Amino acid sequence: MKRYRFIFKGLVQGVGFRPFIYSIARKLGLTGFVKNTGEGVLAEFQGDLASEQITQYIISNLPKNAILEKIEVYEIEPVEGEKEFCIIESEKNKISTVLPYDLGMCEDCRREFYDKSHRHYHNVFISCTNCGPRYTIIEILPYDRENTSMKQFKFCNDCEREYFSADNRRFNAQSTTCPVCGPRLFLFSFAEKKHIHGEAIELLDFVSQKIEEGYIVALKGIGGFHLVCDPYNETVVKRLFESKRREGKPLALVARDIEVVKKYCYVNEMEKDIFSSPRCPIILFERKTELFSHVNSSLHTLGIMRAYTPILDYILNKTGRDFLIATSANLSGIPMIIDEIDAIQKLDGTCDYVLYHNRKIVRRCDDSVGFVIKDKFVLTRPGRGFAPLRIKLSLSQTVEENILALGGHEKTTVALKKDDEVIMSQYLGDLDTKEYIDFYMSALSDLLFLYNLEYDYIACDLHKNYFTTSLAEHIATKDEKKIVYVQHHIAHVFSCMLENNLDSCIGFAFDGTGLGLDGNIWGSEGFIIDKSNVKRVFHLKYYPLVGGEKSIKEPVRLAYYFAYEIDKNFAKEYFANSNYLSKIVKAARLLNYPLCSSFGRIFDVVGVLLRCGEKNNFEAQIPMILESIADKTEEGFYNFVMNFEHEIEIDIVYILQQIINDIKRKTDICLISAKFHNTVAKIVVEVAKRLRENYNKDVVVLSGGVFQNRLLLEKTVSMLEKEHFKVYFNSFFPINDGGISAGQVYYTIQLLKNC
Amino acid sequence: MRTIRKEHGNGGKQTYELIDRLFKPIFGSEILKSGDDSTVFSLNGLIVGISTDSFVVKPYFFNGGDIGKLSVCGTVNDLAVAGLEPKYITVSFIIEEGFSMDDLEKITRSIKKYADIAKVEVVAGDTKVVEKGAADGVFINTTGLGVAKDVEKLPSISKIKSGQIVIVSGDIGRHGACIYSHNEDLGFEDRIESDCGLLSDAISELMREVDVVYMKDLTRGGLATALNEIVQKSGFDIRVEENRIPVADEVKALCDILGLDSYYLACEGRFVAIVNGDEKDKAIEILRKYNGFACEIGMVEESREKRVYLSTTFGGTRILDMLYYEMLPRIC
Ligand SMILES: [Fe+3]
Ligand SMILES: [Mg+2]
Ligand SMILES: [Zn+2]
Ligand SMILES: [Zn+2]
């Protein structure tokens, strides 16, 4: 008789791991126990089997949402007279570093939900160990029912039996509940200014009917409220755009399954897998048809996610639609609403009904967004199913000190380094308003509390006007932390280096605008990176950012400036409001605007020149249209000249000049757009080749918001690979500013390691 | 080498850093540390206040005023918002060799005219002429002295409490917009009229009728900067509403062209007054006699983050921060 102690680390809580161990022990005839601990899961097995056999059995049968990173096995003294295997309640006061994710409804639950003979038939809060809310209901760790917002719902007899039966799928599933004992649904009507009463299914039927009739319903989901309506009804879509006050920003769709998506979009294997996975992000699919042009501003992609809650699935079925719109209930400047009182107060006029439940959302978590390219899922908004992001540092990449990083200004996240892990929060939004700053602050303290972090270093951006920078300075002074300022584009590159475990590379950050080390605005940088040594070796020749911040929202200003510099007559003829624009350009000369090397702004300019629009009503609207119109079969490109002084510099004016010549020749704009994309990719390749010669490096890292452009990313990676570079781009940490905090952490680690 | 940059004079964050880190530690006077534009103190039982200001505006003659009028109004207004009755003023010129004698005469007459209107006496002066290139045209410094009758009635930052109402005395940003509109290269057909003007009459009537909590004139850095100074010194928050703040259409149009924010444009004849809720209607009625755009724009709030919040028409609450590196975009 032997006894072993197993310690399991990784994502092993909230995924049915203990019941799984229990069932295995019973099958193998072992005695002992299993329990959650601060570090993961601990089990002791006693019997006649060798530890290798037990390990083997466990590894080959893991629950599908578990991620096992490490197993430690120790042989210990057998216990006399032990009769059975049991599950022990969690230890208090110890915090696991692994927070479980919210998971979309599983197939088993879906079947039961529609099975008339099943106890969980039409249980609108159905869930099991494989699915349901977790991250957004946890108040404190460890993940046990009494530490979640499910604690107020006391089990009925049936649920209790399921929860305690080791052979049940709901064994120890903290979100287990049923119509007898679970949360209730409530429906508020704005027109009647009162609640409408009924059984859960009656309310869902009513709401489905209203959606079919063209009303908008706010729906409380897992991490916040959605606004749901009928995408086939152009009038209601228009109304939704107006009330969200974000003219044209594409709306997300939900679909029942991937088969529906395939009817309208191109779907590859990886997209299919991720779509059907429990994470259920919004995936940007390449669309086949013109359908829903009014939903996505005629872009070439549609953002679609699986109907990941029983309620969404039911309404989809009931309405008989292939798709519904389900967009976050985030009015401009205000984070997604998570509370029903707020919803009823703030959404009057925006929608007609509020359907909510009385299970509290402990923390806000938006839908995740991403796209698939080159066999990678590029996460652009970290939210449900992904957050908090977590990565293990390899032994060679870690340091003793703990670090807190506060991120940038837009699409903010916070990240921390604790022991040998980097953990990054969900998307916290643009910090332009008090409401988002409040969200950011509560998420920050939430994260520090959950992880019980004690840190020595605080990392932030260079930009003095960022809220996060002044916050870092404030904390550093108050709590005596050491502060590390990380340049924006260096942080972009380091975020990608972190997820790929690199400490040296040729790094490119093509981006919007971030403050550079020389006080100018950067955004087309090439770096040679060796550990914490960063040398800027490439950028576009500086141009004046005419109109400052305003030119980012209204790139027509900058476009006119370039056009006028290149060809005055063309500029005057081509722009309808050229009189007004010349005033702007003249004003710019007086006001001492900053110098800028951003590539993002050049995509804006080319977009304006090709009539993709004059203003960005939402971020990157014009560049997205520019990408959409590009003729993907075109292989030509524009000429450019690399100037060498101490850095490589390319003057974008020469390229814009050729574009304007093409426009004057009436060349098809789809060809011009493609040639421009090709040219940018070629710039990366030519610069990288030159750097490879000079610095003997062949690892290239691509990061920054501009690479959210799939055409550009795909082209650049392919062309680099053809030249035998080893190419990396962000997939785990966002390639846009959402990844800045992770990059700040990793840069700080490198700095500490090498000083 | 540490050097003075242009931003140190923009009246925003860097100006305050300069004052806090250089001037205050060296001068050290307790009165100066209060950081107000005017200083009020008691001299042998008499309550007096002094304020000083230098004027370097270009062009010297603009739509609605000139550097002479400006240098009287600036100092008189600083005294007036402190609750003082302006009495005396001194005027010093620094003139560049070659400056037009006719222009200097016009400027001087303008000083005399507005000093008379404000009922202040010019009691001392000084003239320096410097070599060509050592100054740019003409610089004027004025120093004013005012008196107060009743200390109790003086507005004070310490009287600010949450729930009090913030009133602006007229539409904002005209002076800054006016100066830009005079720039030949911009080619504005119509020059915007500056708000340059005296506030002493409006304020003395206001103080006769209302227990004014606090007042501040809007100068460099405009409304946003003035409100930020108030929250920094009082410790309270202020919330203002975008759709209540009066801005003339031509000022808005110019801001659009320049890519600037009207909340930060200079004024030279506007002030904000903080009053108790029960007196706001009376206060507004009085101020409207002097400027039809006077109105309530917001409220003092309790939360004590020392921030100025702007409730925008699109929903959401923008933070109106102190100006800092004004042209650097934060958008990625
Ligand atoms: Fe960025
Ligand atoms: Mg002054
Ligand atoms: Zn399930
Ligand atoms: Zn139950």
From TrEMBL, chain A:
Q: Which SUPFAM superfamilies match?
A: Actin-like ATPase domain, Acylphosphatase/BLUF domain-like, YrdC/RibB
**Reaction equation(s) it catalyzes:** C-terminal L-cysteinyl-[HypE protein] + carbamoyl phosphate + ATP + H2O = C-terminal S-carboxamide-L-cysteinyl-[HypE protein] + AMP + phosphate + diphosphate + H(+); an acyl phosphate + H2O = a carboxylate + phosphate + H(+)
The cross-references to InterPro entries, in alphabetical order and at most eight, read: Acylphosphatase-like_dom, Acylphosphatase-like_dom_sf, ATPase_NBD, Carbamoyltrans_HypF-like, Carbamoyltransferase_HypF, DHBP_synth_RibB-like_a/b_dom, HypF_C, HypF_C_2
Q: Note one Pfam family from the annotation.
A: Sua5_yciO_yrdC
Q: What is its EC number?
A: 6.2.-.-
Q: Locate the active site.
A: 18, 36
* Biochemical pathway: Protein modification; [NiFe] hydrogenase maturation
Q: Which domain of life is it from?
A: Bacteria
Q: Which residues form the YrdC-like domain?
A: 201-385
Q: Tell me one GO molecular function of this protein.
A: ligase activity
Assigned protein family: Belongs to the carbamoyltransferase HypF family.
PANTHER family (alphabetical): CARBAMOYLTRANSFERASE, CARBAMOYLTRANSFERASE HYPF
In its UniProt entry, what is this protein called?
Carbamoyltransferase
- The record's gene field reads hypF
TrEMBL record, chain B:
InterPro entries the record matches: HypE, PurM-like_C_dom, PurM-like_C_sf, PurM-like_N, PurM-like_N_sf
Q: What species is this protein from?
A: Anaerocellum danielii
Q: Which CDD domains match?
A: HypE
Query: NCBIfam families from the entry?
Result: hypE
**Name this protein carries in UniProt:** Hydrogenase expression/formation protein HypE
Source superkingdom: Bacteria
Residues of the PurM-like N-terminal domain: 35-148
PurM-like C-terminal domain span: 161-309
Pfam families given for it?
AIRS, AIRS_C
Query: Which family does this protein fall into?
Result: Belongs to the HypE family.
